[in-house]
Known about the structure:
β8 and β9 form a beta hairpin. The protein is an alpha+beta fold. Helix content is 52%, strand content 17%. The chain starts with 6 loop residues before the first helix and ends with a helix.
Amino acid sequence: MDLNLSDEQKLLRDSAERFVAESYNADHRRKMANDPLGFSPLVWKQFAELGWLALPLPEEFGGLGGGAVEIGILMEAFGRGLVSEPYVATTVLGAALIARCGTTEQKQASLPKVADGSLKLAFAHSERAARFDLAKVTTSANKTSQGWRLAGSKIAVLDGHAADQIIVSAHIHDHRGPSGRIGLFLVQATTPGLVISDYPRLGGGRACNIELFDVHLPEDVLLGDGSDALPAIESAVDRAMAALGAEAVGIMQTLLDTTLEYTKIRKQFGRPLSANQVIRHRLADMAMQVDEARSMALRAALKVDAAPIERARAASGAKAKIGRCARFVGEQSIQLHGGMGVTEELEVGAYFKRLVAFDTLFGGSAHHYGRHAQLSRRAVSA
């Protein structure tokens, strides 16, 4: 297997890193942290012009037909700049679900708008009692003569406050009662009965909780033909974990580079910190953890189109391992910067906070070690 980047992938990496280096600095991040929207609409428009929003979308619907590896290249660059735009929510999660589950008419109505930046999406699936179990959905969708009636609540919806449309998962109830199927419903953010409570995320960006109070919807908001959407949800979340893993690698690489530079210029007793052999060993351990995390993120990206169990094992393995690596690299960076590492004067603290947030998204390391073990037993028994 050739793991070297193609010429096109190298161009994507170089352009993304150059854009992030020029557009994202400490002042920009502080401004976005205090902005109610949490990101810049102007930068989002530039994403569209650069083709990044169209990158993973099918070509017949205005996309570029890119894969998970290209998304990983982009997300690693985003990690270096702590990008807060709703790329994962809209492109990696929302658009992927529409592309997989939607009818041709639904895809034609939504995906070209995602590509040109005029439509932002969010995926509302997590619930308080689910504990990261994707199959556990208590939000209900009751069939009515006019369409559907949704009721329930969702938590930790990435960038739901900024979305034009929200994809809501719900347990379908038809005239015979609970069907046992999970459906996906494309709901306008301004729909009566939909209440959004947003809040800042640790390390930048925003998320929200959503309450659905007897929300009445037309029949055509159901994505696809109403068959069980759980396999599509699992696939989309595994893809999102691979993308977020690549973002974490970009953050870790920036922390390593920043810490290495700091130990070269910071002196104690007339010598740079990096002259101390113990410090060098700690820096070497950090570099090793970054390389291990990058390998796991790449493996998760390469497996996104594999068989479901193989794909899920790669995603959970990456999430678990990268979570451990991220905490180690973040803690070492903070410690090697001394007291300055936890102040707002340096950005090390902001990068560390984003890594802590990464470990909680879609389940932490402990959860995914358990999921990986369970999937491994299923693979052996099969």
